[in-house]
Amino acid sequence: MLTPESRSRDFPALHNMVYLNSAAEGIPPREVGQALQQYFEDKLLGMDGRIPHAEQHRLARGLVAEMYGLEPDEVAICSCSSEAFNLAAWALRLQPGDEVVINDLDFPAGVTPWLQPTSPASVRLWRSRDGVLDLADLAHLLSPRTRFVTTSLVSFYNGFQISLSELSRVVRRHSPALLGVDVTQVLGRRELDLQEADLIISSTHKWILSSHGGGLVGVPKRRAAEWTVPAGGWANLYDPFGPHRFDGARSLPGAASFATGMPNYPAIYCLRAALQYIRQVGVGAIDAAAKPLVEHCLAELAALPVELITPRDPAQVAGIIAFRHPRAEAIYQHLHARNIHVMYHAGRIRVAIHGYNTSADIVRFLGELKHALQTV
Questions:
Q1: Which of 11, 54, 109, 309 makes a 20 to 30 Å CA pair with 157?
Q2: What is the pTM of this model?
Q3: Dihedral pair phi/psi, residue 154, rounded to 5°
């Protein structure tokens, strides 16, 4: 991932392609494809295949726990981050008069469960200013009625990275709220200290280079009672097949309550392989390699005739840079025709820089962008 030789070996799809869209879809290393094939071979064993399936599940949970700074029994794997947030909404058991704080830089999965008409809580919107979430603005939204504050550590929209320690300090000072963080856009890209979080959620198909079909949930033991999901199922329940199974259902506490049924083993095999790959390369090494590329790209974009919507301070940026332009769609088409992959949506172009990117990628992207700005 970090040398020409390992990049060519592990990511052959990147040959002659500039891929700057890991915030939407990560490119998996070869090991992930091999793990998926191993799942198929194990599935051919029928019921006996559940033994290696369970071992892959155990290894994957251990690797997630390591990245979250938790113990394996404080981690669960469900189907996606959207499912995880919906289950979290059930666990909160909100009542009329309760308040939830969301923000306008967050992904829909993290905010929409509390916007549904069936949610009894009042939602308070933390609005960004110039692409940044100001903690002073958050303080004014908090009260003794605030039950939950949720945010992404890195915004999918513009790449702004918030300080978890400073965020936690403000939340604890002004409310009794639980603090949930979505780490989808930074997990595997930067080293994290998540000790201040009460709930941690991530998807699997972006920066950690795994497949679709996973939602990674972390619940510290100290918060297990608050995050116990009252959902039906079997894997999440005490004694679901026992003699008294029709007398009632009782959820296991904390993270275990988020894993309601049969694990998605194909995704789990991929997840185990991807996290082992990330661990072997080292998140610190990935960040050290990608950081100067981000700073170079950010500085160059700031000097171009585009509307930069990412904060200009590199300390507030992880791996995502976004900008607007009146001809953004035509610029995107120009880049894509030259095998330069970025994300386009509604006038916004988003660039995501990972450990498999190179300085040559950034130079080529910037050169073609400058050409497009002059010609399209």
A1: 11
A2: 0.96
A3: -125, 130
